[in-house]
Amino acid sequence: MKQLASTVLLALALSPIAAHAQVGSDPMVEYGGIVSRQVTTSLGQLFHSKFVELWNTKEGFDKFNILVKERPYPRGGSEVLVISDDVILFRRGLPRDWRTILSMSAEAVEIAFARASEIEVDRLLFKDPDLAQTGW
Protein backbone atom coordinates (compact mmCIF):
# COMPACT_ATOMS: atom_id res chain seq x y z
CA MET A 1 0.00 0.00 0.00
CA LYS A 2 2.83 2.36 0.89
CA GLN A 3 4.58 1.55 -2.39
CA LEU A 4 1.38 2.25 -4.36
CA ALA A 5 0.99 5.63 -2.64
CA SER A 6 4.57 6.60 -3.43
CA THR A 7 4.09 5.53 -7.07
CA VAL A 8 0.95 7.66 -7.35
CA LEU A 9 2.71 10.64 -5.78
CA LEU A 10 5.64 10.20 -8.16
CA ALA A 11 3.27 10.04 -11.15
CA LEU A 12 1.47 13.19 -10.00
CA ALA A 13 4.74 14.98 -9.48
CA LEU A 14 6.07 14.04 -12.91
CA SER A 15 2.88 14.69 -14.90
CA PRO A 16 3.33 18.51 -15.08
CA ILE A 17 6.93 18.01 -16.20
CA ALA A 18 5.89 15.65 -18.96
CA ALA A 19 3.11 18.00 -20.09
CA HIS A 20 5.53 20.92 -20.04
CA ALA A 21 8.09 18.96 -22.06
CA GLN A 22 5.52 18.27 -24.78
CA VAL A 23 4.13 21.80 -24.95
CA GLY A 24 7.38 23.66 -24.40
CA SER A 25 9.60 21.76 -26.82
CA ASP A 26 9.95 24.80 -29.10
CA PRO A 27 12.14 27.40 -27.35
CA MET A 28 10.72 30.24 -29.46
CA VAL A 29 7.22 29.57 -28.08
CA GLU A 30 8.43 29.34 -24.52
CA TYR A 31 10.75 32.35 -24.48
CA GLY A 32 9.27 34.72 -27.06
CA GLY A 33 8.80 38.43 -26.61
CA ILE A 34 12.01 39.24 -24.75
CA VAL A 35 13.54 42.66 -25.39
CA SER A 36 16.97 42.84 -23.81
CA ARG A 37 19.32 45.79 -23.76
CA GLN A 38 22.98 46.62 -24.03
CA VAL A 39 22.94 50.37 -23.57
CA THR A 40 25.37 52.58 -21.70
CA THR A 41 23.99 56.12 -21.72
CA SER A 42 20.84 57.61 -20.24
CA LEU A 43 19.63 58.46 -23.75
CA GLY A 44 20.09 54.83 -24.75
CA GLN A 45 18.07 53.77 -21.72
CA LEU A 46 15.34 56.23 -22.67
CA PHE A 47 15.25 54.81 -26.20
CA HIS A 48 15.07 51.25 -24.83
CA SER A 49 12.27 51.98 -22.36
CA LYS A 50 10.13 53.75 -24.96
CA PHE A 51 10.88 51.01 -27.50
CA VAL A 52 9.74 48.30 -25.06
CA GLU A 53 6.61 50.24 -24.17
CA LEU A 54 5.61 50.55 -27.83
CA TRP A 55 6.83 47.06 -28.80
CA ASN A 56 4.50 45.41 -26.29
CA THR A 57 1.48 47.00 -27.97
CA LYS A 58 2.17 45.27 -31.31
CA GLU A 59 0.05 42.25 -32.22
CA GLY A 60 2.30 39.17 -32.21
CA PHE A 61 5.25 40.83 -30.48
CA ASP A 62 5.85 37.66 -28.46
CA LYS A 63 7.13 35.78 -31.52
CA PHE A 64 10.39 37.71 -31.58
CA ASN A 65 13.34 38.13 -29.25
CA ILE A 66 14.93 41.54 -29.65
CA LEU A 67 18.19 43.13 -28.54
CA VAL A 68 18.53 46.90 -28.30
CA LYS A 69 22.24 47.69 -28.47
CA GLU A 70 24.03 50.99 -28.18
CA ARG A 71 27.51 51.59 -29.55
CA PRO A 72 29.10 54.75 -28.17
CA TYR A 73 31.67 56.53 -30.32
CA PRO A 74 34.23 58.89 -28.78
CA ARG A 75 33.65 61.74 -31.23
CA GLY A 76 30.24 61.17 -32.71
CA GLY A 77 27.85 60.25 -29.92
CA SER A 78 26.15 56.86 -30.06
CA GLU A 79 24.57 54.53 -32.54
CA VAL A 80 21.55 52.42 -31.60
CA LEU A 81 20.82 49.04 -33.18
CA VAL A 82 17.77 46.79 -32.92
CA ILE A 83 18.77 43.17 -33.56
CA SER A 84 16.83 39.93 -33.87
CA ASP A 85 18.42 36.56 -34.70
CA ASP A 86 21.73 38.22 -35.65
CA VAL A 87 19.97 40.45 -38.19
CA ILE A 88 20.07 44.21 -37.75
CA LEU A 89 16.49 45.41 -38.06
CA PHE A 90 17.10 49.09 -37.30
CA ARG A 91 20.24 51.25 -37.09
CA ARG A 92 20.49 54.97 -36.45
CA GLY A 93 22.61 57.55 -34.75
CA LEU A 94 21.22 58.37 -31.32
CA PRO A 95 20.21 62.05 -31.14
CA ARG A 96 20.89 64.16 -28.09
CA ASP A 97 17.34 65.52 -27.75
CA TRP A 98 14.94 63.37 -25.72
CA ARG A 99 11.90 64.39 -27.82
CA THR A 100 13.61 63.17 -30.96
CA ILE A 101 14.50 59.93 -29.21
CA LEU A 102 10.84 59.32 -28.36
CA SER A 103 9.75 59.76 -31.97
CA MET A 104 12.72 57.73 -33.22
CA SER A 105 11.81 54.83 -30.92
CA ALA A 106 8.28 54.79 -32.36
CA GLU A 107 9.77 54.68 -35.86
CA ALA A 108 12.17 51.92 -34.76
CA VAL A 109 9.27 49.78 -33.51
CA GLU A 110 7.44 50.04 -36.83
CA ILE A 111 10.51 49.32 -38.95
CA ALA A 112 11.85 46.52 -36.73
CA PHE A 113 8.48 44.77 -36.49
CA ALA A 114 7.95 44.93 -40.25
CA ARG A 115 11.43 43.53 -40.99
CA ALA A 116 11.18 40.84 -38.32
CA SER A 117 7.82 39.76 -39.75
CA GLU A 118 9.28 39.60 -43.26
CA ILE A 119 12.18 37.47 -42.04
CA GLU A 120 9.77 35.14 -40.22
CA VAL A 121 7.64 34.71 -43.36
CA ASP A 122 10.75 34.02 -45.47
CA ARG A 123 11.93 31.47 -42.91
CA LEU A 124 8.57 29.68 -42.98
CA LEU A 125 8.36 29.64 -46.78
CA PHE A 126 11.95 28.58 -47.44
CA LYS A 127 12.20 24.80 -47.63
CA ASP A 128 15.57 23.33 -48.52
CA PRO A 129 16.29 19.72 -47.62
CA ASP A 130 20.01 20.47 -47.31
CA LEU A 131 19.61 23.19 -44.69
CA ALA A 132 18.21 23.08 -41.19
CA GLN A 133 14.95 24.88 -40.48
CA THR A 134 16.67 27.41 -38.20
CA GLY A 135 19.55 28.03 -40.59
CA TRP A 136 22.20 26.53 -38.30
Reconstruct the topology from this structure:
Blueprint: H1 2-23, H2 27-30, E1 35-38, H3 42-55, E2 66-73, E3 77-84, E4 87-94, H4 98-125
Parallel strand pairs: 1-2
Antiparallel strand pairs: 2-3, 3-4
Helix pairs in contact: 3-4
Please sum up the structure shown:
50% of the residues lie in helices and 21% in strands.
Question: What key attributes describe this structure?
Answer:
single chain, 136 residues, alpha+beta, Double Stranded RNA Binding Domain, four-stranded mixed β-sheet, 4 helices, 50% helix, elongated
Descriptive notes:
With 136 residues, this protein is α+β, with helices and mostly antiparallel strands. It has 4 helices and 4 strands. The chain has helices at 2-23, 27-30, 42-55, 98-125, and strands at residues 35-38, 66-73, 77-84, 87-94. Strands 1-2-3-4 form a 4-stranded mixed sheet, covered by helices on one side. Helix 3 packs across helix 4 (98-125). The chain is elongated.
What is the correct CATH architecture? 2-Layer Sandwich
Q: Which regions contain 5 or more consecutive residues with pLDDT less than 50? A: 4-24
- Residue fraction in strands: 15-25%
Count of distinct strands: 4
Kindly report how far apart the N and C termini lie: 52 Å
How do the helices and strands follow one another from N- to C-terminus? Answer: HHEHEEEH
Total number of distinct structural domains:
1
If you average the pLDDT, what whole number results?
A: 78
Shape: elongated
Strands in their spatial order, largest beta sheet: 1-2-3-4
